[in-house]
Design a protein that fits this description.
The protein has 19 helices and 14 strands. It is α/β, with parallel strands linked by helices. It folds into two domains: about 200 residues, 3-Deoxy-D-manno-octulosonic-acid transferase, N-terminal domain (Rossmann fold), CATH 3.40.50.11720; about 180 residues, Rossmann fold (3-Layer(aba) Sandwich), CATH 3.40.50. It has a seven-stranded parallel beta sheet, sandwiched between helices. A seven-stranded parallel beta sheet has the order 10-11-9-8-12-13-14, sandwiched between helices. The chain is globular.
Length: about 450
């Protein structure tokens, strides 16, 4: 897939790496402790493997032993923590590859679910590896092999040894779509020397808002710029036409709502709301798509204990006439569920988690309903609220009442959808600004540009 081409004629030569600050005792203590923990790493990985949190065939990658060869020439290394960050970075990867076609791109992630997600969404030209555990020798082995020319971290992924070792090798470091919660900011502010030792090593920090720009500057970052939220410019998750048709037929004309990316114990609140709503909305089906699909069995057990009839997608089941909750404990199907449901509750907002991504729901036509915990997407929710594009569950209020309005009032629902779409349009443009902020750090091979390549 071709990405947009950005003007680079006036960007100038690659910027120099930032000066190296003096490390404090906290950095030394962290490096010592992680070295001492090295012998335990194989046992930790084995335990995580038993819990389904590590890939048994690729554990060596977590120990800094890559399983793929390094491509020749320039390599851009991009690290994303999990599925959400990986999804938001895909358009950036495509745009960088389109503008620097000779550069190899390495994507690292830290979770099994993100690796599975990446396998279905990245192009063959992008390599994927698991990020090494943040221990000095594992990190050194990883960097010895890949020798990246630019290291790009996403959102709030600050692993000290990865940052320190990359900076020691004079590898330019960038933090894109950077964000930081109130709680994280206060924690960093209480450790100013540690914060400065890490954030001052970044050659470029591209933040999601003006507030975040000020925070990163306060913590020691030098070259900081607010470019907006990359997730606004990320295409919506795919809708599987076959799955959509099968589910649409199975559900018939029954009213439906999706609870997306939920966390424990939000499913119980959703179950209570479902029980209240079904008395006034016969046939209601609530689709629950938990943030962590491996919780499917526990969620199904808890709901059935409340007398709720549950069908599980991971077991190949479709909703029957008796199904009240359809549990989508699978990966990569949220787009299809948004397309099916006219109303979407956004998980992580009823508990102090900070909220999950509401953007995808808006993109696919669902009215957004959310609780009060929203700091992960504060600017997005602020824009939605200002435009009256989101239904808010007030503290102590009834989730069922918040869902009932858009489920039963089509005029109000249409107005909310239109307002939400307009609000997101006003926040777009982060992709182009991010790409233009990164291109100066990637050497350009003019002969490799599409217009200069022979047929």
């Amino acid at each position: 897939m071709a990405g947009p081409t950005f003007k680079t004629g006036e960007l100038g030569p690659p910027p120099p790496a930032v000066p190296q600050p003096v490390d404090g005792y906290e950095i030394g203590a962290y490096r010592l402790l992680t070295r001492l923990a090295r012998p335990a790493a194989p046992y930790i990985l084995r335990l995580r493997e038993r819990n389904g949190k590590e890939d048994p065939l690729r554990k060596n990658e977590r120990l800094g032993r890559p399983s793929l060869p390094r491509p020749s020439g320039t390599v851009v290394w991009i690290h994303a923590a999990s599925v959400g960050e990986t999804s938001s970075i895909l358009p950036l990867i495509r745009a960088l590859h389109h503008n620097r076609p000779a550069a190899g791109i390495l994507l690292t992630t830290g979770t099994v679910t993100s690796a599975r997600f990446a396998a279905t969404r990245i192009e063959p030209s992008t390599l994927h590896q698991y990020v090494p555990l943040d221990e000095p020798s594992f990190v050194a082995s990883f960097l010895d092999h890949w020798r990246p020319d630019l290291a790009i971290f996403t959102e709030q992924e600050i692993w000290p040894n990865l940052v320190l070792e990359a900076a020691r090798r004079r590898i330019p470091l960038a933090l894109v779509n950077a964000r930081m919660s109130d709680r994280s900011f206060e924690r960093w502010r209480r450790r100013p020397r540690l914060a400065n030792a890490l954030f001052s090593r970044f050659s470029k920090v591209l933040t999601q808002s003006d507030t975040l720009e000020a925070r990163f500057r306060a913590l020691g970052a030098v070259k900081v710029e607010n470019v907006g939220n990359l997730k606004i410019d990320t295409p919506p998750p795919p809708v599987d036409a076959g799955a959509f048709a099968a589910l649409h037929d199975a559900l018939g004309g029954r009213p439906r709502v999706v609870a997306a990316s939920t966390h424990d114990p939000e499913e119980l609140a959703i179950a209570d709301a479902h029980s209240r709503l079904r008395t006034s909305m016969p046939g209601l089906v609530t689709i629950i798509a938990p943030r962590h699909p491996d919780r499917g069995e526990a969620i199904a057990t808890a709901l059935r204990a409340r007398g709720i009839c549950v069908a599980r997608r991971s077991e190949g089941e479709l909703p029957s006439r008796e199904t009240e909750v359809y549990l989508v404990d699978t990966i990569g199907e949220l787009g299809t569920m948004y397309a099916l449901a006219p109303v979407a509750f956004i998980g992580g907002t009823l508990i102090p988690h900070g909220g999950q991504n509401p953007i995808e729901a808006v993109q696919l036509g669902s009215v957004v309903v959310a609780g009060q915990s929203r700091y992960n997407f504060a600017d997005v929710f602020a824009a939605l609220d200002a435009a009256n594009g989101c239904v808010t569950v007030e503290p102590g209020a009834d989730l069922a009442a918040a869902l009932l309005g858009p489920l039963t009032d089509p005029v109000m629902a249409a107005e909310r959808r239109s307002s939400a779409t307009a609000a997101l349009t006003g926040l777009s443009g982060a992709l182009e600004r991010s790409v233009n902020g990164l291109l100066p750090y990637i050497a350009e091979d003019l002969a490799a540009r599409p217009e200069n390549m022979s047929a």
